[in-house]
Every structure is written in C-alpha cells, then in structure tokens.
Amino acid sequence: MNTIIGILSDSYLLFKEMAPYLLFGFIIAGVLHILVDTRTISRFLSKRNFSSVIIASIFGIPLPLCSCSVIPAAMSLRKEGASRGAVLSFLISAPTTGVDSILATYSLLGWLFTAYRVVASFIIGVIAGVLANFLIKEKEPEIKNETHECKLCANSGEHSHSFFYAAKGVLKYAFRDLVSDSGVALVIGVVIGGTISYFMPDDFITRYVGGGIKAMFVMLLIGAPMYVCATASIPIAAALMLKGINPGAAFVFLMAGPATNIVTMTVVAKSMGWKTLVVYLFSIGAGSIILGLTLDRIYSYAPEALKGVIHHEAFLPAGVKTFASIVLLGLIFYGYISAKAAGKTLKN
To answer: Which of 49, 160, 181, 343 has the fewest beta carbons under 10 Å from its own?
Structure first.
C-alpha cells in the first residue's frame, strides 16, 4: 500500500505541474484547428524546394498531433499536392511539439529545454525534407481542388458562424476531442514517470546507463519503436533527468519517441517508399544524437539551467495548479467514459 501511495504521490506531482499549461495548450490547439485551412497550406507545400520544407516544418510545430494522429493529416497534405519533402518535414515536426506539449515541457523542464526542443524539431524536420527532395526524385504533384467541409458544422458551402458558435467549437475540440485522444496516454506517461521517480535509485543512470552518447543511443533504441505522444513523454523524460540522465539523452527520447513508432514507419514505407523511410529514420536518429550532444554542451556552459527541471521558479500559485489538475483529471475521465460509451453504441 505504501508503494502504491508513493507512486501516486510522485505521479500527481508531475501531473499537477503540467495541468495548467496543458489546459491552456488545449485551448490554443482548438483555435488553431478551427483557423488553419489545410487547403491553403498545401498550396505552399507543392514545390520541391527549400521554402516548402521550411513552411511545412513551421506549420507542424504548433499542431497537437501525436505520432499516429499525424499520419492522416500528413497523407491529406500529400493528396492535396504537398511534395514528399514537405510531408516528411511535417511528419517529424508535428508530433514532436504541439502547443500543449511546448507548454508542458516548460512546466517540467524549464524554458531553455523548451526553446531548444522547438528549434531542434524544426531543424530535424527541415533536414529530413531537404534530404528527401534531393535524394528521391518525383514529379511535381498535382494540386487537387476538392471541396472541404467546415470544421464547425460539416457544411461545404459558403457560410459564416457567430463568434460564440466558433468559441463553442474551439472548446468542444479542445476539451472533448483532444483530451479524449491524448488523455489516457498522458495519464500512462505520468504514472510511468512517477514509477521511475519512486523506484529508481538516484545513482541508477550513472551506474548502469552512463552518460553522453552511450545514454543517447540507449534512449534512441528505447524511444524509436514506442508509441508515446509528445506530451506523455515529458514526465518520463523529467523523471529520468531527476535520476541523473544527461539532458541530451532525455532530448533524444523526446524526439525519437513521439516522432516514430512501428505504425508510422509502416505507413511511411507503404505510402512514400522505403527510400523515404530510410531518410525519415536517419534524419531523426542522426539529428537527435547530434543535437543531443549540442544540448549537453550548452548545459555544460549553463549548469544552473538544469535547476529548471521541475524545480524552476514557480510561475503559477499552487492553488491554481491544484485546481487545474482536478479539472483536467475530470475532463480525462469524462472523455474516457464517453469514448467507451460511444464504442458500445457503435457495436450495438
């Protein structure tokens, strides 16, 4: 019983730190979902040039898409005329960041790690896109002008909505759809992080895993085949850092885990070919290792920044964090129950 209480206590500490930032991030994600028109974006991504890759990576950074939910979005861009390189760039930058993940990273890992993670996600996405366009020849894709349904009401004709109707759609997407999609994975990630924090001795990492590039390769091998979303991977990385893993290795896990999994690899190979898969995996693997080494070097010059892991200066009062954690737990529980009920209804 004491063990269970200890794990839950450490898990709740992680969850409480993340909750306010996640709630705000979900709202921003809802606004982006309503405002962003993929048809317009795809027109900028159709050329096999550097600018299309840059735009795709920038476009992917704020979107709250996990490594599986990004697949239909990426394939949709491909069908609408986006080049192979642009799609690959988006396929990497989107699942490794997202506004909810960015804010959650700040809540546990501090501003330096957060800023570096965003920039690194952009860089690796661009590298993959440029390599794909340079190494894999293809014809210029044809842009399709298909009719798209409104994200608020599914109407495909010309129409408009009031501010309050749009706001309702934003909240519905943020706190029903997004929370339902990522809530369970988030809780699992938090519990894993709490379990690591509770059981792992403080000297475990330094004694058995080591540091530097060896730890990075270990994290790459662990993270690459796993299905873990960008937000759910954060408490795991934070717990590992608290137990002594170097920031670069934690960064590698945060890149490789959300960006890849067996499902994504299979889809990339089937829809865009094995050469594209090789470029995809090489960019993530080599890019995350090199940038992980760079991050360790940065922290060596600014060791005080490591204090930003969980214990950085409080930005929000403890009461706000507690309230936000209760609200978010309620939303996750409601989303889980609703999804289960919907599944039973469909079966019947």
So the answer is: 160
Q: Which residue would you say has higher pLDDT here, 312 or 50? A: 50
Q: Are 98 and 230 in contact (CB under 8 A)?
A: yes
Residue count of the chain? 348
Q: Tokens 């530097």 label which residue?
A: 212
In a domain, 156, yes or no: no
Round the CA-based radius of gyration of the chain to a whole number and report it: 20
CA 210 and chain centroid, separation: 27
Structural domain count of the chain: 1
Please choose, from the candidates 15, 8, 28, the residue with its C-alpha nearest in 3D space to the C-alpha of residue 321.
15
Own/partner pairs for 34-38, CB < 8 Å, 24+ apart? 34/151, 34/152, 34/166, 34/169, 34/170, 34/173, 36/63, 37/148, 38/73, 38/76, 38/77, 38/80, 38/148
Six-digit token string for 150: 């409104």
The answer as to whether 144 is a domain residue is no
For the stretch 183-226, pLDDT in tens is 777 788 788 878 877 887 766 666 666 677 888 988 888 887 76
Q: 329: which 2 tokens?
A: 């737990």
**Predicted local distance difference test score (pLDDT) of residue 130:** 92
Q: Which pLDDT value is given to residue 285?
A: 92
Give one word for 233, left, alpha or beta, with left for phi > 0 and alpha for psi -120 to 50: alpha
Domain containing 73 equals: 2-137+168-347
At 200, the amino acid letter reads M
Q: Is residue 310 situated within a structural domain?
A: yes
Domain assignment present for residue 94? The answer is: yes
Alpha helices, DSSP H only, in the chain?
2-35, 38-44, 50-60, 70-79, 84-96, 99-135, 163-172, 179-199, 204, 212-223, 233-242, 247-259, 262-272, 274-301, 318-347
The pTM of this model reads 0.72
Give the chain's mean pLDDT: 79
Q: What is the pLDDT of residues 72-81, one digit of tens each?
A: 667 667 766 7
pLDDT (average), residues 174-178: 81
Burial class (CB in 10 A: 0-12, 13-18, 19+), 303: exposed
Type of residue at 76: S
Nearest to 65 by CA among 96, 34, 31, 89: 96
